[in-house]
Automatic annotation (TrEMBL):
Superkingdom in the source lineage: Bacteria
Subcellular location: Cell membrane
Residues covered by the Major facilitator superfamily (MFS) profile domain: 6-388
Gene Ontology terms: cellular component: plasma membrane
Descriptive protein name: Major facilitator superfamily (MFS) profile domain-containing protein
Gene3D superfamilies in alphabetical order: MFS general substrate transporter like domains
Organism: Arthrobacter alpinus
Taxonomic lineage: Bacteria, Bacillati, Actinomycetota, Actinomycetes, Micrococcales
């Protein structure tokens, strides 16, 4: 494959990651406003956020088979348009202050994000293999950079009291336009064409067998802790700042932006560290930094110290998810099935964990509830060795144990 095609696909993949991050952060940065509009407690908001997880958990296990059948570009489009439809429903629901309609919209949003995420990671892993160097963290830096812009936009719109309905409506237009054009630049869909010739039963069998592989499941556990760390910050760092430190909603959105900025910076430069020191040492450092930053944020007596904790927390959360995706895709013949499995495990934590923290926050405040994440981070640290790159002899579909 010529270098121009690969370079074009890398740019398109980066853009798709960035748009994904922008969309998610545009929602996450204004969760305090949504909570106010719908007049919900932290626990009730947690239950509402759980509907995103429901949609994604339905979509994620099927995403590998969908990619195998229709290719990454079509799967990204399907996910993007589904997420846009969900956003439109949420926009209408918030204008009416309707909790049930908001929940329905978030289910569609979760389905779309799930399909979109798996497909973009499979495309990113394919581009990484063709380039011959670590670039997955930079794609996730694109996600984080998009999330940073989304968070800043959310903070600005919150400060000037722009309605959530208008905000989300604009996002729907952006996503729909991007899905029409950007995925056209992805790598050629030869693997998908071959899968269609083999028929749906072959791709479904591969997806099922990936759930029985010890290494794949352990990599999923590594990603679980990293994903919960990132997801909890996305959903709750703004509200924890508002409730725990008496800050304004705009200041809470800025704290979220600080976290995302730190994560983006470390993802952008992280590939060179992985190539220099190896995947496993960088994972140990990342998860350790996330643990330290989380504790510092929760115990912080003021905004300055909390901001420092958010910086360290973001730096630590930066590398776990992208390295997990690369580990799952080490064998290109099994990449779609394994990325689907690891993404499912990670997104269960990313999307379902934060709402559960909301229930805990009803009893001990959301700020102190964040300390529960430390348990998952420690579990991930213990399973880091599973993410070692596969030797060439274990490629071509061999099951690692």
């Amino acid at each position: 494959m010529n270098q121009q095609t690969v370079s074009r696909a890398a740019i398109a993949t980066f853009a798709i990651f960035a748009i994904n991050g922008f969309v998610f952060a545009s929602w996450a940065a204004r969760i305090p406003a949504v909570t106010r509009i719908l007049d919900l407690s932290a626990g009730e908001m947690g239950m509402l956020l759980l509907t995103i997880a429901v949609g994604s958990v339905v979509a994620l296990p099927l995403a590998g088979s969908v990619v195998a059948r229709i290719g990454t570009s079509r799967t990204v489009r399907t996910g993007g348009f589904t997420a846009a439809a969900g956003g439109l429903l949420v926009s209408i629901a918030l204008a009416q202050a309707s909790v049930p309609l908001t929940a329905l919209g978030l289910v569609f949003f979760g389905v779309g994000i799930g399909l979109w995420d798996v497909a973009q990671n499979i495309e990113g892993a394919a581009v990484e293999r063709h380039l011959g160097r670590t670039i997955m963290p930079q794609f996730h830096a694109g996600f984080s950079g998009g999330a940073l812009i989304g968070a800043l936009v959310g903070a600005g719109l919150s400060a000037v009291n722009v309605s959530m309905s208008l905000h989300l409506g604009a996002i729907v237009v952006l996503v729909s336009a991007a899905m029409l054009f950007v995925p056209r630049l992805f790598l050629p869909e030869a693997p998908a064409a071959q899968a269609r010739k083999q028929g749906p039963q072959a791709s479904l069998a591969k997806s099922r067998s990936a759930w029985t592989e010890k290494r794949t499941l352990l990599v999923g556990l590594v990603v679980l802790g990293a994903a919960l760390t990132e997801g909890a910050a996305n959903d709750w760092i703004a509200k924890a700042t508002v409730d725990g430190l008496g800050a304004t909603e705009a200041a809470g959105a800025v704290m979220f932006a600080v976290f995302v900025a730190s994560m983006t910076l470390f993802r952008f430069f992280g590939g060179s560290f992985i190539d220099s020191y190896g995947r496993v040492p960088v994972l140990y450092f990342s998860l350790g930094a996330a643990l330290a930053g989380l504790i510092l944020f929760v115990l912080a007596p003021n905004m300055v110290v909390a901001g420092l904790g958010a910086v360290l927390w973001g730096a630590g959360a930066a590398m776990g998810f992208p390295m997990g995706m690369s580990a799952a895709a080490d064998d290109p013949a099994r990449a779609a099935a394994r990325v689907s499995v690891v993404s499912t495990i990670g997104y269960v934590a990313f999307l379902a964990g934060p709402p559960l923290l909301g229930f805990l926050g009803d009893h001990i405040t959301i700020r102190w509830a964040l300390l529960a994440i430390a348990v998952a981070i420690v579990a991930s640290i213990l399973t880091v060795p599973a993410a070692r790159p596969l030797p060439a002899s274990e490629h071509l579909g061999a099951t690692a144990t």
